Amino acid sequence: MTPTRQGSFRLFRFAGIDVYLHWSWVLIAVYGISLRAGRYSSMTWPVLEYLALFLIVLIHEFGHALACRQVGGQANQIVLWPLGGVAYVAPPPRPGATLWSIAAGPLVNVALAPVFSVLWWLGYSLGWAEATPNVYAFVKAICIMNWALLIFNMLPIYPLDGGQILHSLLWFVLGRARSLMVTTIIGFIGVAALIGLAILGREVWFGIICVFILLNCWSGLMQARVLARVAKLPRHEGFTCPSCRQAPIIGPLWRCDKCQQQFDTFATRAVCPHCGAQFPVTRCPECGSAHSLSEWVAAAPTPAPPRL
Questions:
Q1: Same-domain check for residues 48 and 121
Q2: Residue 213: exposure state from Cβ atoms within 10 A (0-12, 13-18, ≥19)
Q3: Domain residues for 253?
Q4: Which class for 233: exposed (0-12), middle (13-18), buried (19 or more C-beta within 10 A)?
């Protein structure tokens, strides 16, 4: 239920990250601008207000993407659509790396909050409301928008940033699968409360956002169940992925590029048993990173000596 490039057009590329805009965003922008028109004496200002919202969301998503790259993950696409923005990030499956990749987005809003708040206070102190009411209304609006985005995003409801941060923190204690399971259950409780508020307030657009959150929370629960099953599978001893620190699962999970046959690369020491092809690196099925077999061996924990 997350947006994809389907129905989107490419705006630009920055720092190796492609930014796409879904066509429906333009329709919602026109509707949003018309609602804000009564606050200003000119249509220029509501347009600037919506563009400011666009910029805040975009910077937020770049925070996610650049932080993910900083910890060795992959991030090369951002899609903006009516329900916000999504940075397609794939950090190494470690709690610390995931935590930083997710927390960097809200931290952008935290950094912007005092700047906008000071501008709002300055405008109030200098009498902008009477002298330049359009400027004052604009500064006030973007300050409120930034704070609203920050507070809403930090709710501990999966898949909001707050929910994913909670998942990362619990991951340190409970492990990846159980932490995601707990987080999604908390998310169901939270989204039920939000849906109740949407019904009481008769907020149709907020209700649509809640349904989107609910569907993604359900998807997270299904992912947690898959991860729990994967965690119970037998694994090779003496090998550990240098990137995600996971021992490889036993089984024919690798496909030979030459003969297209599947085999267990760790059982055959990176040699295809069907055609004899030798592979210099082995890709981790869990995080996607590729390392030589010697690196897999070197990363494995040294077994403790037997106690006498």
A1: yes
A2: buried
A3: 235-301
A4: exposed
Q: Quick one: which of 166, 208, 203, 209 has its CA closest to 187?
A: 166
Is-contact 143 120, C-beta < 8 A?
Answer: yes
Taking only the tens place, the pLDDT of each residue in 10-48 is 899 998 999 999 888 888 888 888 888 788 888 899 999
What pTM was estimated for this model as a whole?
Answer: 0.82
168: which residues sit within 8 A by CB, 6+ positions away?
95, 96, 98, 99, 102, 103, 179
As a whole number of angstroms, the distance between CA 221 and CA 282 comes to 30
pLDDT digits (tens, 9 = 90+) for 216-253: 999 999 999 988 888 888 999 889 988 777 888 898 98
CB 180 within 8 A of CB 223: yes
Q: Are residues 14 and 79 in the same domain?
A: yes
